[in-house]
Amino acid sequence: MTIDISVVILSWNDKDHLKECLESLANSTKSRTMEIIVVDNASTDGSPEMVEAKFPAVKLIRNKENLGFPKGNNMGVMASQGKYVYLLNSDIKVLEECVDSLADFMDQNPKVGFCGPKILNGDKTHQSSCRWFPTLWNNFCSASGLATAFPGSRLFSGEHMLAFKGDRQMDVDVLVGCFWVARRAALDEFGLLDEGFFIYAEDVDWCKRCWKAGWRVVFYPNACAIHYRGASTTKKDPVRFALTQQRSVLRYWKKHHGPAGRFGIACIIFMRLVLRWSAALFKFVTVRAKRQDSSVKMRVAAACLKALVSPNAGENS
Prior knowledge:
Elements: E1 5-11, H1 15-25, E2 34-41, H2 47-54, E3 59-63, H3 69-79, E4 84-89, E5 92-94, H4 98-108, E6 112-120, E7 130-131, H5 136-144, H6 146-149, E8 170-171, E9 174-175, E10 179-183, H7 184-190, H8 202-212, E11 216-227, H9 238-286, H10 291-309
Parallel strand pairs: 1-2, 1-4, 2-3, 6-11
Antiparallel strand pairs: 4-10, 5-11, 6-10, 7-9, 8-11
């Protein structure tokens, strides 16, 4: 049987959101054949057992360890058969007609390699899901505070397209990786996610390769999904996740902009970390109620600074 749509959901210790995600997909297409694949990255909260018990039609891939975002998703893509591959975070709730609308759009636009729906917060407000490609200038604007001071300015904006409210269809540099629709024919050209990243920056890299291969990346607001952002584990181990993000950013810049670009972004990261550590120290001294939060921020910034200036900084980058 020909399969039109393959839905790949990567899950790690997010049982409740995963259950809601799968329930939202139960009757999400009226006109197309669809398979659902859950890749579990060694969850310990009963997620895979829940899938087996409540969703027997779902194909479950159980990993013995957390393989990271790119490798986990790639396993699902390689196990899939659909013409279109929908890659969803486990904390996504698909709204009515979203699945079919996205497939219809891809059918009508054969040069689109990736598309993504309008992403909403749990209260149905707009959630920014589009980005500019990172440049030294827009990273400097974010690090220096110019992007915050001039939130509506394209010149001083950072990577985040915060001024764009998702009110129109448009080609974008980057779609955030919480919900992608990928064309199988496009993936056959520019390849799967780069497994050299563990998490962070892999979405920018993938969209970069999509554009370089001659395919478009499009934001399509006529389809909508909710992203709860409840699966984030950065608060559980903020230092680890900050270091992982920093390594990923350095790796992206070395891959696409060479040693000079990597050096440039490292300088901007250094400036940002010094400013963050200083601001956190000021709050720690002056605002008693913020001391615990400020202490964590100082610890994170210090760890990232140490990693950045060490002789082996970014050795995996």
